[in-house]
């Protein structure tokens, strides 16, 4: 399930307008919402890295590693890599973090660093072959060794979240007010449990847009409290 973009926007407007604090347009909201979603998404990786360093628990619903991995699961995907030239393949435009490189749908290719490749290729025992290839990942390109491999490469990766969109219409019948249009709108791709976090973060940025320090302070305080609680 996702977080409904209309629910979030209406909630943000309700809070901002409660005491006539200000207003953000759908375009401003979409830009802020996209930035907030990306921030939360990026924090999943750091939180997962931190949790892997501490003892896990056996709780079915409170396992933080499992919950974080579940939050990332919607972004995990597999796609064929596009051959560019020689043994080079371009990665998908929506790739955020590369996971595995798979050859002919069955063999996972080992990744090496540029400074190790020379030593690996010099030895007949470790030199990459078509049956046991290696790859470099540089500048968005997957570079297979041997370079004679020009097909059969697929990538397992975590993709970037889609940009959030609150689509609308504005007609004379509504005095040219913004009317939500589900067609063309894009919800947040985050778990429903993140809704309060999303709203607080959007409010913090909205406080900057409308130049209201009180909104910034209250929202920032709530965000900090939630972060401390999630890591304690």
Question: Could you give a quick summary of the protein structure above?
Answer:
By secondary structure, this protein is an alpha+beta fold.
Describe this structure in words.
- This protein is an alpha+beta fold and 232 residues long.
- The chain has 6 helices and 10 strands; from the N terminus they run H-H-H-E-E-E-E-E-H-E-E-E-E-E-H-H.
- It has helices at residues 5-17, 26-51, 64-73, 114-122, 195-209, 213-231; strands spanning 76-80, 82-85, 88-90, 95-103, 107-111, 134-138, 141-145, 153-159, 168-169, 179-180.
- It has an 8-stranded mixed beta sheet, with no helix packed on it. A two-stranded antiparallel ribbon has the order 9-10.
- The chain starts with a helix and ends with a helix.
Order of helices and strands: HHHEEEEEHEEEEEHH
Structural class: alpha+beta
The largest sheet has its strands arranged as 1-8-4-5-6-7-3-2
> How large is the count of helical segments?
6
- Main beta-sheet annotation: 8 strands, mixed
**Integer-rounded radius of gyration:** 23 Å
Unreliable spans: none
Mean pLDDT: 87
Q: Overall 3D geometry?
A: elongated
The helix content is: 25-40%
Question: How many angstroms separate the termini?
Answer: 27 Å
Tell me the β content: 15-25%
Number of strands: 10
């Amino acid at each position: 399930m996702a977080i409904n973009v209309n629910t979030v926007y209406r909630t943000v407007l309700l809070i901002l307008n409660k005491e006539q604090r200000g207003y953000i347009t759908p375009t401003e909201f979409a830009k802020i919402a996209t930035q907030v979603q990306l921030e939360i998404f990026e924090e999943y990786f750091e939180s997962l890295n931190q949790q892997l360093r501490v003892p896990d628990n056996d709780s079915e619903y409170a396992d933080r590693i499992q919950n974080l991995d579940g939050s990332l699961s919607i972004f995990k995907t597999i796609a064929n890599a596009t051959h560019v030239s020689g043994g080079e393949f371009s990665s998908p435009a929506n790739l955020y973090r590369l996971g595995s490189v798979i050859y002919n749908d069955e063999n996972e290719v080992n990744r090496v660093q540029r400074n190790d490749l020379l030593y690996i290729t010099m030895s007949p025992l470790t030199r990459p072959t078509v049956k046991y290839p290696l790859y470099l990942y540089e500048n968005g390109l997957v570079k297979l060794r041997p370079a004679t491999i020009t097909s059969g490469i697929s990538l397992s990766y975590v993709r970037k979240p889609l940009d959030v969109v609150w689509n609308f219409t504005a007609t004379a019948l509504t005095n040219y007010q913004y009317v939500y249009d589900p067609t063309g709108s894009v919800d947040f791709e985050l778990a429903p449990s993140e809704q309060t976090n999303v709203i607080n973060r959007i409010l913090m940025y909205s406080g900057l847009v409308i130049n209201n320090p009180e909104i910034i302070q209250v929202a920032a305080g709530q965000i900090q409290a939630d972060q401390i609680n999630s890591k304690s």
